Amino acid sequence: MHSKKSNSSDLAAKIRAFIKSPAGIPILAGVAGVLVVAIIAAIVFAVRAGAEPGSASNSTSGAADDSSYDAEAGKVNKEEFTGTILPEAEDAGQEYLDNTLFIGDSNTARYMYYGPDDNSDVHFTTIENTVGVVSAGVQNITSLKWEHFVGKGEMAIPEIVKIMQPQRIIICFGTNNLTMETDTFIDYYTEGLAAIHEAYPYADIIVSAVPPLDKERSNTNLSMKQVDRLNTAIVEMCEEEGYKYLDTSEALEDPETGWAKEDYTLALDGVHLSKNGARALFSYIRTHTYVTEDTRPKPLKDIPKINGVTPGLITQDPIGVSGSSGAVPVEISAGEGGHIVGETSQSVQKGKQTSMITAVADDGWEFDHWSASIGFVDQQESIMFTVPGDADANGVFLTAHFRRVEEEEPDPTASPTPSPSPSPSPSPSPAPGSSGSSSSGSSSSGGASSGSATPPASSSSTPSSSSSGASSTTPTVTCTICGQTGHDASACPNKCPTCGGSKLDGHTHTTCPGCGATDVTHETCPYCGAYTCTGHDPATCSSNPANQPPANVGSSTTTETASTQPTEQQPAA
């Protein structure tokens, strides 16, 4: 015991001596400072971890937050904001959409790839009236250079609105701000909308509701309660600032559950609107309109060519729905004149292929080409598309394009030539025997005419039987031009009528204006310009100065001398 007390006394003495030394106090102060900083850092980290998407802390609280979700509690009180919420009206049609500038995140960007139906070449919006960036939020309205204009460079939203001069704006943010504090969200929104109005005060501003989430969303940290809180704050902001509120939740939410309607979001994440959701949205937009007097200064200024949004402006996914699995949505549609066979909405890992999809042309049409919003696509009717590694939450859009088949093109040239010679000989013989189109009916009572009517009947039946026999073997044939089964090269719609090659390689032919020959350029007469391939001889040309005197004499040249060229050239001679 004495030994332990002695050691303790020695340690205490050493500590007192260290404290009294010149370096003791500064060293202790430094250690204390480090401990204080470490404690503060730990507290900040714990707070931020609770707000970061994908963290374990937030995952538990987020999922629990919506476990008792009430479909009616927390929703916007429509009666309280009757002057701000747009009511139902008559369908304003596509013209209303064309005169509206749509601003927002990846949902907005996808409007350019969706249309009223799968076989429509018309999409809801175009690059001319859409500004959408993947992962964008309200904080980016004034801080981000969104779009590039030729001769103007990249611009923020207020500058873009000023240069595009829209009659109205429909702006929608919030999906990428679901982890942001509501007050902070509204502060950013208010500042951004004020900057837009200041830049171009002639445009009506309509703020759209944050779209609902699917109950089976991939990131359960995202809360429908937070969606409702943001929407309530947005309509209150619109009321105070004089903007209009587009309550799209009426079209997108299931009134019984409060969540998004079935199939209105992508199965991949339960957040982004699917084509069905987009169609319901735009049907609602067209029937909940805001049309005022157009006060824009006239004439409108020319808009520079739009190069579009610079890819990869925002590399981090703020809500954690597109980076974890590596899968992206792939949407397949067909333009006018055809349809798609296969799954038209797929979720595919980056670098992997879609399932087989086939572009099938309707009657009177033929397949032309595929187009892709990103990546390379094979130009065959049936493809398995490989999703590029740089695809993002916006996904990939594939469209099959078709062109009309020009079946009547060769007939106008063929019918005038052979028709006049053979038709007069067989036509007059049966026609006098029986007048009218019902000659076969009346000829059955007359012996001579019934005999003449029999051959056409048997001859018409012969091709019918032969064609049916040929069709029975057609399905087993593989076309050497397009690789499809069911027809051979002679019946392939992609066969070039000129050379018999494939039109899929995009080759073209030239035609001589004189004789109609293809891929041949014939000489022309230096005196009159006529093509020598027609039999014209420059040596005997009536426009040849050497032939002027005799060219107007003689019966053998009466056809040439009757032309206008000799009489025009004669005074010069």
Taken from the alpha-carbon principal axes, the silhouette is elongated
* Secondary structural class: alpha/beta
The profile of the biggest β sheet is: 5 strands, parallel
Q: Using only CA atoms, what is the Rg?
A: 39 Å
Query: Beta-strand level of the residues, as a percent range?
Result: 5-15%
State the end-to-end distance: 145 Å
The low-confidence runs, each spanning 5 or more residues with pLDDT under 50, are 1-5, 46-64, 419-475, 550-573
Question: What does the secondary structure layout of this molecule look like, with pairings?
Answer:
Blueprint: H1 2-20, H2 24-51, H3 56-65, H4 93-98, E1 100-104, H5 106-109, E2 130-132, E3 147-149, E4 153-155, H6 157-164, E5 168-172, H7 182-199, E6 204-208, H8 224-241, E7 244-246, H9 249-252, H10 275-286, E8 306-309, E9 327-334, E10 338-341, E11 345-349, E12 357-361, E13 365-372, E14 382-383, E15 396-404, H11 411-414, H12 430-433, H13 439-443, H14 447-473, H15 548-551, H16 558-561, H17 564-569
Parallel strand pairs: 1-2, 1-5, 5-6, 6-7, 9-15
Antiparallel strand pairs: 3-4, 3-8, 9-11, 10-12, 12-14, 13-15
